[in-house]
Write a structure and sequence with these properties.
Blueprint: H1 6-14, E1 21-25, H2 32-46, E2 54-58, H3 70-80, E3 88-93, E4 101-102, E5 120-121, H4 123-131, E6 136-142, H5 149-156, E7 160-164, H6 170-177, H7 181-191, H8 195-199, H9 203-225, H10 232-243, E8 248-249, H11 251-260, H12 268-280, E9 284-291, E10 296-306, H13 309-315, H14 323-337, E11 341-353, E12 356-369, E13 374-380, H15 386-397, E14 404-409, E15 416-417, E16 422-426, H16 427-432
Parallel strand pairs: 1-6, 1-7, 2-3, 3-6, 9-11, 13-14, 14-16
Antiparallel strand pairs: 4-5, 8-10, 9-10, 11-12, 12-13, 15-16
Length: 437
């Protein structure tokens, strides 16, 4: 049975034949290739596109290593698309496997040092060339955010469209498993949404798959890609980040934890670089800290979240599964899946403490930027007492603005609003109904 990902298929179709390269990025094994070569291809065929109008190339396959030369790849695609009376869909998987080729026809000594990169032909050149062909619509996938997502702006500017793919959302997970939503939520918080983990039938098989994937694919990729001498510090950092999901931190704090608690020697400079490696591999996501009243960002401290809870839990051997932290991470992931920019909010409030006026900072879990408004969201397991209600809504009430305010609770609770205009809703209906935000 296929796992349907209709939202991504619709996004791809909306961008078809727009004259740009469609660049599908995301963590390895999240289903990018399956989305493109199976779900999207079948969608197009159902609309009447003939099978021989697809040109597909998987650059991870050993049999296709020669096509990692961008010039060879370009010639292959052009030869397959030579009938100018037909329209072709070109799907290239793991495009970052292409290497650059030096142009030997130019005397390098005549080229200024700062322009030496222009001596090389790269896959960017090839893709820009192909996208100009009126009968070719180009789609590529890639798993390295530094090579693709960041450089889209630099190399493609307005000539590329990025579609970020994530592990299965809770709604996608439920549509496949068909189990009752509360049971599904517990399993999703434990094993996450990596497609092949979802398809595994037994719990031990899920655990083994996720642990092996994290260790032998993601961490090995990072060590190999950045030529790290050993994996001790990056391993320790990964554990520290996963243990602190939803907590405010920075490179210095992580370095101190690794040095004192884990007995390793490192610096905040090294940790800052390693955090970038984890983010580039899509293992973690970073939320900036934003002063709601002052309209400014804090640069020295942020929140870090796991891209997939199953991978996070497997890395920690399924320990440290505090539901409040997992639910906060889940809500953050859902918001970025939906395409919103999400910050961590800070509200500065003056309060009287023992007769003295004190200034203090209070946190709003998420400041969601929808494009037309901001929405403030708190994650809370429950508000079953007056004191808990006061605690969870305090920062929301002190923003002193008219933006929507929401508290997401554990369970199936239907939406309701208190007298102060704060909306309350269970996490399950929130995850399943996008119209609620």
């Amino acid at each position: 049975m296929d796992i349907q990902r209709n939202d991504y298929v619709e996004r791809l179709y909306a961008k078809s034949w727009n004259g740009k390269v469609k660049i599908i990025t995301g963590i390895r094994r999240c289903g990018k290739s399956y989305l493109l070569s199976h779900l999207y291809k079948q969608f197009l065929m159902d609309k009447g596109v003939e099978k021989d109008c697809f040109v597909e190339m998987d650059l991870e396959e050993d049999s296709n290593t020669s096509y990692r030369n961008p010039l060879v790849l370009s010639e292959y695609v052009k030869a397959r698309c030579k009938n100018k009376r037909r329209n072709y869909y070109v799907f290239i998987d793991e495009i970052q496997r292409c290497y650059k080729v030096k142009n030997t026809d130019i005397d390098e000594s005549l080229v200024p040092e700062e322009d030496r990169d222009l001596l090389y032909t790269t896959f960017y050149d090839v893709l820009n060339g192909l996208r100009k062909q009126p009968n070719i619509d180009v789609y590529v996938t890639g798993s390295n955010s530094k090579m693709l997502s960041t450089d889209v702006v630099t190399y493609f500017r307005d000539r590329g469209s990025e579609i970020r793919v994530y592990p299965l959302s809770f709604a996608e997970y439920c549509s496949h498993t068909g189990s009752d939503t509360y049971t599904a939520l517990g399993k999703y918080l434990t094993y996450g949404g990596m497609p092949l983990a979802v398809l595994e039938s037994g719990e031990q098989a899920k655990r083994d798959y996720l642990a092996d994937l994290h260790k032998n694919v993601y961490m090995k990729d990072i060590v190999d890609r950045y030529k790290l001498k050993d994996d001790i510090v990056i391993d320790a950092l990964t554990d520290a980040v996963y243990s602190a999901v939803g907590s405010l931190s920075n490179p210095t704090k992580f370095a101190n934890t690794i040095n004192t608690v884990m007995g390793q020697k490192t610096t905040d400079k090294t940790i800052k670089a390693y955090l970038g490696y984890l983010e580039d591999a899509y293992l973690i996501s970073v939320a900036e800290r934003y002063d709601v009243k002052g309209k400014r960002y804090f640069e020295n401290i942020k929140k870090y979240y796991a891209m997939d809870l199953g991978l996070r839990n497997a890395r920690l051997n399924f320990r440290q599964q505090e539901r409040s932290h997992l639910m906060e991470n889940l809500i953050y992931n859902e918001l970025i899946h939906r395409g919103y920019r999400v910050d961590v909010g800070v509200v500065e409030v003056q309060r009287m403490v023992e007769g003295k006026r004190q200034q203090a900072q209070y946190e709003i879990d998420f400041v969601v930027n929808t494009g037309t408004e901001q929405i403030y969201i708190q994650s809370a397991l429950h508000v079953d007492t007056k004191e808990k209600m006061e605690q969870e809504t305090f920062s929301l009430r002190h923003t002193r603005d008219s933006f929507r305010k929401m508290v997401i609770l554990d369970g199936n609770e239907l939406p309701w609003m208190n007298d102060e205009g704060v909306q309350f809703i269970g996490v399950i209906p929130f995850l399943l109904d996008r119209s609620l935000i």
